[in-house]
Design a protein that fits this description.
The complex is a heterodimer.
Chain A: H1 2-25, H2 29-54, H3 59-84
Helix pairs in contact in A: 1-2, 2-3
Chain B: H1 2-26, H2 30-56, H3 59-90, E1 107-108, E2 113-114, H4 121-132
Antiparallel strand pairs in B: 1-2
Helix pairs in contact in B: 1-2, 2-3
The chains are: A mainly alpha, B mainly alpha.
Chain lengths: ~90, ~130
């Protein structure tokens, strides 16, 4: 059981690394925002698996907050792009 | 038994998230990247939260886990829509192999106006009146 949890945690860390490459390289700002959104989703997953691993149910509240923050960040960046972002055409 | 179910769900969720990350790294343009990341990550988080609900099996925790699933399922499409819209308006380049861009003939990037393609002359008159006012 704990081995499988460890494996899934490492798979998610690998996913974080891949997303980070896109965040670093992403040619335009929308690409980076999409990568950031995926970042927060993966973080929610990691927090869920850690909650199972250490048997602390309170961590789910943290996951809720992270999901909320990710959504708010995306909306905020989208507004910024439409109103004041640098145009790329 | 329950332990293995939880472990399997966690592993499946992690694999789906890894697929989402792979898609976001390898796919060629903004819209295809979004299409990979939004759905696969939503499914991954849902599976993991299902596993959490099964592991703890208390009312409060199950309610929270399903709350997270509901929240992610409601917000992920909205966020993807808004980012896609903003990306298109900013002028994100589409992939070379894109066959069809149905928005292009209807959207004027300079005036930031969008027509439906069904405007009658009546609509045009109303438009001009609006401009005069």
């Amino acid at each position: 059981m704990s081995t499988v949890i460890l494996i899934s945690l490492s798979v998610m860390v690998l996913a974080l690394c891949l997303t980070f490459i896109r965040l670093f390289r992403g040619p335009s700002l929308p690409d980076r925002v999409v990568a950031l959104e995926l970042f927060s989703s993966i973080l929610v997953g990691i927090i869920g698996v850690v909650a199972v691993a250490v048997d602390v149910a309170l961590l789910l509240d943290v996951a809720i907050v992270v999901a909320l923050m990710g959504f708010m960040t995306t909306i905020g960046f989208a507004r910024f792009l439409e109103r004041g972002g640098r145009r790329d055409d | 038994m329950t332990e293995w179910l939880v472990a399997g769900l966690a592993l499946m969720g992690a694999v789906f998230m890894c697929l989402a990350a792979l898609g976001i790294l390898r796919l060629p343009d903004l819209l295809t990247r979004m299409h990979a990341s939004t759905k696969a990550a939503t499914l991954g988080v849902s599976l993991i939260m299902l596993g959490v609900a099964i592991h703890f099996a208390e009312e409060a925790v199950v309610a929270r886990a399903f709350g997270i699933i509901l929240f992610i399922m409601m917000t992920a499409p909205v966020a993807a829509h808004i980012i896609g819209r903003a990306g298109y308006f900013v002028g994100a380049r589409l992939w070379d192999g894109t066959v069809k861009d149905e928005l292009k003939p209807h959207y004027d990037p300079l005036s930031h106006r969008l027509d439906s393609g069904l405007e009658s002359e009546q609509g045009d008159e109303a438009d001009e009146r609006g401009r005069e006012e």
